[in-house]
Amino acid sequence: MLALLDASAVRRWCSAVVDGLDARRGEIDDLNVFPIPDGDTGTNLALTLHSAADAVAADRSGTVGGVLAAMAKGALLGARGNSGVIVSQILSGLAEACHGAVEADGRLLVKGLRMASDAAYAAVAEPVEGTMLSVVRESAQAAEELGDAPELAAVVSAAASGATTALADTPQQLAVLAEAGVVDAGGCGLVILLDALAAVITGQGAPGPAQLPPARSRQGLETVRESGSPEFGYEVQYLLHAPESALSSLKAVLAELGDSLAVVGTGDGLFNVHVHVNDVGAAIEAGIEAGRPHRITVVRFADQVATQPARTGRSGTALVAVAPGDGLADLFRSEGVAVVEGGPSESTAPSADRVLAEILQTGAGQVILLPNAPAMRAVAEAAAAQAREQDVNVAVIPTKSPVQGLAAVAVHDGTRRFEDNVIALAEAALTTRFAEVTIAAGDSITYAGRCSAGDVLGLIDGEVVEIGSDVGEVGISLVSRLVAAGGELVTVLSGADPGAEAAADALHSYLRSRHPLVEVGVFVGGQPGFPLLIGVE
User: Fold this and answer.
1) pTM passes above 0.70
2) Helix, strand, or coil here: 384?
């Protein structure tokens, strides 16, 4: 029996947790009905702790605080699903309480359990009782009831016992668990974690959670889902490098898009973002606007369980793009993309009904929709929502320019899963910087200064940065700015305005002369109102 928790004991604990979750991941998967009956909580927790164990194995610190910090950071970086994010914060709370400590006694562990509970609740935008949050809170409460100077073994035993009792109570707290006849899956994983800690400290074998209910069929899981809860079909998760100041707006955007939102960080500008949404592209775009997302994963919940055949008989995947010009329409069609002509302004934008008709005309069960203009975003979302009501799975990638749409189409791979294609297309589109040349319709004050009717305006990512008198010269200035920041491929689309093709040719000549290593593609887009559209990848 240990009187103090040291670095070696934490390492043994981490290993024991991994073994315990690996052994029972299938049982925990079969408990999963909240927040999504997707049967993956056991797998998510096991993978999260495997990441934590890898970090512990690589860590060379010899203190309890140092090893716990490595374990917590490894869990956060490898967190899978909502349960993985929460358990990473439980470990972060323990690590924070033990920061700088060589060893931890009973009193410090009590403090750590309380901080773990607080961190877990803080990680979730809308905490729900009857989940692993309730279990960690009750374990902390049980430890605190021991008094001011508890022994370490008594603390872990009380915490494990309190967690087991709280787990048994979860069906009384959450109706969906009672209806399914199960306890909370995440809470079960947390009991395994605390039982493993108790076993390491007391030297007694971990009994583990009480006998779990028998496994249910995948059809049973789907029935629970259909009777009720989630309206959001995708889990989006990514790591994000971003300043702390960007988080409030990121959370606000994601909260509007979906639920099960959790944004947690390591304290050094790296965050794990988790949310359930229908609009995968918008969730990824929110991350790009906040910072630099990477290690993006998307899970479609319907793929996690056996489902009935689609009532519509639709199958396969199709791409649909809005194209504001005959040349652009031809470019998209040549890549096998269904086209809705119109845009890019609100006055020329096609209606949601027209976009819906094109989606349904494809006959596909899964559709990726490219609006290709800010004015088309709301129309695309409305059409996608109507299509989903007719059993067509639609993902809108929020492309703001046709050049972003073309970049997305270029990476489409019909052999990939739908979710993987959505990720690939969204990344390609939203990392393509774009510029536009247009003509001022009247006098105005812009970011670049005052402009008058007839002036040539150059925009980058929607902001006016150049005011001039010649389309070609403004285009050259724009592309110089973009290429200076890096780029290997430049796409130029000439519009319907007189002289647009000549301006595009001048831009091509400039790039060949000044940037010979940059690949250039010049095409006739035929878009109205924008003599030049430029994309840099």
Assistant:
1) no
2) helix
